[in-house]
Structure formats: structure tokens, C-alpha cells
Amino acid sequence: MLGASACLPALPGRSVEGLGIAGRRVHAAARGRALQVLDPHQSETVATIADLIIPATDTPGARAAQVHRFIDLLLAEWASDDERAQFLKGLADLSATDAQRGTILTQLDAEAQTQRGGERGPPPFFHLMKWVTVYGYCTSEVGATAELHYEIIPGSYDGCTELGRASAGPGDF
Fold this sequence. Notes:
With 173 residues, the protein is mainly alpha-helical. The protein has eight helices and no strands.
């Protein structure tokens, strides 16, 4: 829900719950499926960037959540031709060594923050990359269970539990 609520302004007309459901469906469809938009090098670059955004710590990171496959499916089936081209162009601009990539991403994040409230138009690449990484991670099984501690049925159901009344006598009901 956290990831979905972060995406809500970008997808008007969708509820947080609806975004969560859509994200889980995309993950299910992307599982075990061949890449459709990204080539193997681009997919590895996306996985590396996503893992820099949400690294593995005491919980799995974005790579373990297969966010790169999630992004590939979104690009293939949800993105318009212009959005897909913009994403791939932004990705191409990030060809660098691992050491350089961290510096570049820090600069891109700073640029995205300054442009955030400014001009209208397509969002900067890194802003979009962060958004889709968080959305993909939070709606993945790994992110939802290990990080967000999402439980389908939390706690337990005890339908016949004594509510604390000492004793019920006749006429108490």
C-alpha cells in the first residue's frame, strides 16, 4: 500500500488498493517470462539501479524482488511509445562503471528534486525510475512480506473469546 500510495498522484482515478492489486498482477505476469522491451544489458542496468535505490540489507532488495522484470513488463504493456522511448533514452544516458553510476544517480536525483515542482511535462528519468522501483518493490511478494510485513489475514480469529465479564447471570443479556 505504501508503494501504491506513492504512485497515486501519477495515476489519477486509481485507488491505493487498486494500484496494489495491479502491481501484484504485473509481478505474476512477469514471473518466468522472457524480456520484451529491455535487452539483457539494459535489464541488468535497471536491476543495478533499482538495487541502488532499494539495496539488500537485513531484508531483500529490489533485485531479489525482480523489479527489473516488473519494469520490463510495464514498458511492454502499459507504457506509451513516447514513455517507453523516454525511459530507454534515460537508461542509455546511464552507461557507466559501477563507481561512476552512484555519482551519476546522486546528481540525477538532485536534478529531479529541483524539477519536481517546476515545469510540466514528462518527469525526469530518475524520478520515474525511483517511482517504478518503489511501486514494483512494495507490490512484490518479497517487498510486501519481508519489508512491509504484509499479512493477508493478520493475527488470529477467536470468535468465542471471553470478553472479560466476570460471570453472566440470568437477565444480563
